Amino acid sequence: MDSQQTHPKPPYAMIAILFVGAFVALLNNTLLNVALPTIMQEFDVQASVVQWLTTGYMLVNGILIPASAFFVQKYTNRKLFITAMSLFTLGTLLAILAPSFGILVAARMIQASGSAMMMPLLMNVMLAAFPVERRGTAMGIFGLVMITAPAIGPTLSGWVLEHSTWRTLFEIILPFSILTLTLAIFKLRNITPNRDMKIDILSLILSSIGFGGILYGFSTAGDKGFDAPIVYGTIIVGAIALVIFILRQLRLDDPMLEFRIYKHPMFALSSAISILLSIAMFSAMILTPLYVQTIRGISPFHSGLLMLPGAIAMGLMSPITGKLFDKYGARGMAIIGLTITVVTTYFLSTLDMSSSYYYIMMIYTIRMFGISLVMMPVMTNGLNQLPMAANPHGTAMNNTLQQISGAIGSALLITIMNKRMETKGAELAADAAQSGNTPTTPEGLAAMEQELISKAMLEGINYAFFVAMIFAVIALILSFFIKRVTAETTHKLTEEDQERDTETITTPK
Which spans are transmembrane here (predicted)? Predict the structure, then answer.
C-alpha cells in the first residue's frame, strides 16, 4: 500500500461513532474535578488521597498513550476501539457501584485504560481518511471534541452536584458509552493500515517508568512542593528511564515510539509550540477557578459557568479554523492567535480583589478564542509533514507531550503561585505588625488573617499568570518560523520510508 493513500470517500458514519466515544472519554477527564471535595467527605479521605482519582487516571494515560503507536499499527481500528470502549464502559459501571474509595480509584484507572486509546485512534483514522489538502477542515472538527469536552466538564459537574450526587456524573456517561459500544460492534470497519510487529518489553517498561514517574512527580509537586523527596525522586528516576528509553528507540529498527520523526522540522516546531500552548492553556483552567472560588467566594457551579463561553467559543471556532487552515496555512493564524493569548494572559495577571465576574469571563473567552486559532492548525501542519507510516508515532507523540506538558505546566505554575504567595504573605504580615493596627478581638484577628491570605493568594495567582504569559510569548516567537506543508512536500518520502511501507504494511480486509 502507498504510504500516503487515503480513502476517496471518508467513512463519515464510522468517524461519527469514534467522535462520540472520544467526546465521552474526554468529558470524563474533567467531570470529576469539582466533585472531589464531596467524595472526600463521603469516603472520609484526605485531599492528598482523593487526588489519586485524577492522578491515577493521568498516570494510566501517561503509560498507555506512548504505547498507542504500537497498538494502532498492530491491531485493526475496529478491534482496538471496541476493546477500548468496553474497558471504559466497564470502568464507568464499576464507578457507579463503587462501595469504597479503593474500588472507585480502580474504576477510574480501568476507564483510563480505555480512554487512553481513543484520541490517538481517532486522529489516525482522520489522517487515513482525508487527504492533506482537506485535513484542516477534518482536524477542525476533531478539535471540537478535543477542546470542548474537557472544558464543559466543570460546568456540567457543578450543576449536577447542586442537584444530585457524584455518582450521577458516571450515570450520565454510562448510556452514551453503551450506545457507542453497540454502534461500534455493528457499524465499525477497518481503514487504517496494519502490520505484523512485536512490542519491545524493555521499551514498554522504560516508557512506563519514564512517563509515569515524570507525570506523578509533577502532578504531586503542586501539593507537596519540589523539595519533597517523593517529588524530586520520582522525577529523577522518570527522567533517567526516559533518556534510556529514547536512546533505545533510536537503536531499534522497529521502535515502540519513533523519535526519528523529529527530523521533520515542521513537526518538531509544532511540538514545541503545542507544549508551550498546553502549559499556558491548562494554567488558566486551574488558576481562574482558584481566583474565582477562593478569593471571590463564588460557587463551583458559577465558576464553571464563567469558563463555559470560552469552551463554546473554542468549539464553534474549531471547524472554522480548520477551513481557514486549508486555505491560508498555519503561520498567520498562529501569530494572530498567540498575540491574543499573550495580551489576554497579561490582563489576567493584573486581576485585583474587585475584578468584575463578567470582565474575567470576557477576558477568558477571548483568550480561548485566541488559543483555538493556534492549537489544531499548528498540530495539523506538523502531522502533514509526516509520511502516513509515521502517523501513529506522530499522534502518539503529540498526545504524550500534551499530557506531560499539561501536568508539568500546571504543577510548575501552582508551585510558583504558592512560593509567591508565601513571600507576599510574610511581607504583608510584617507590614501589619509594624503598622500597629493589629485587631485585639479574635473576630478581628480572624478577619485580618483572611484578608492577608486573600491578598497573598491574589499576588501568587497574578505572578503565575505572568509566567504563563512568558511561555505564550516564546510560542509566539516560534510561530514566525512556521512554513506551510503542502501535499507535494508531504508525498516526498525518503527511500527508507518507501522501502518500509512496501515491505511491511498491508491493508486489513
Answer: 12-32, 52-72, 84-106, 112-132, 139-160, 172-189, 201-218, 230-247, 267-292, 332-351, 357-378, 463-482
The residues that bridge with 194 in the sheet, in sequence order, are 506
64-105 pLDDT, tens digit each = 878 887 888 888 888 999 999 999 999 999 999 999 999 999
- Residue 345 sits at the vertex; the CA angle it makes with 406 and 362, to the nearest 5 degrees, is 110
Are 156 and 79 contained in the same domain?
Answer: yes
CATH code assigned at 277: 1.20.1250.20
Q: Are residues 385 and 409 in the same domain?
A: yes
* Domain annotation covers residue 131: yes
User: How many alpha carbons fall within 13 Å on the CB side of residue 384?
Assistant: 29
Q: Would you tell me how many other CB atoms lie within 10 Å of the CB of residue 239?
A: 14
The pLDDT tens digits of the residues spanning 307-352 come to: 888 888 887 887 888 888 888 888 999 999 999 999 999 999 999 8
Looking at the fold, whether 385 and 460 belong to one and the same domain comes out as yes
Distance CA(236)–CA(71), nearest Å, equals 28
- 216: closest CA among 208, 87, 103? 208
- Quick one: 276 and 350 in the same domain? yes
Q: Would you call 159 exposed, middle or buried from its count of C-beta atoms within 10 A (0-12, 13-18, 19+)?
A: middle
Domain span at 99: 10-196
Does 330 fall in a domain?
yes
CA distance 43 to 45: 6
Rounded to 10 degrees, the C-alpha dihedral 489/191/24/267 comes to -20
Task: From 362, 410, 382, select the one nearest 150 (Cα to Cα).
Answer: 410
Statement to judge: residues 473 and 486 lie in one domain: yes
Q: Which are the contacts of 219, defined by CB distance < 8 A and separation ≥ 6?
A: 51, 54, 55, 58, 407, 410, 411
Q: Using an 8 Å Cβ cutoff, are 353 and 455 in contact?
A: yes
Cα 294–Cα 225–Cα 463 angle in degrees, nearest 5: 50
Residue 424 · residue 456 · CB < 8 Å: yes
Q: Flag whether 417 is in a domain.
A: yes
Cell 494515560 maps to which residue?
A: 61
pTM (predicted TM-score): 0.76
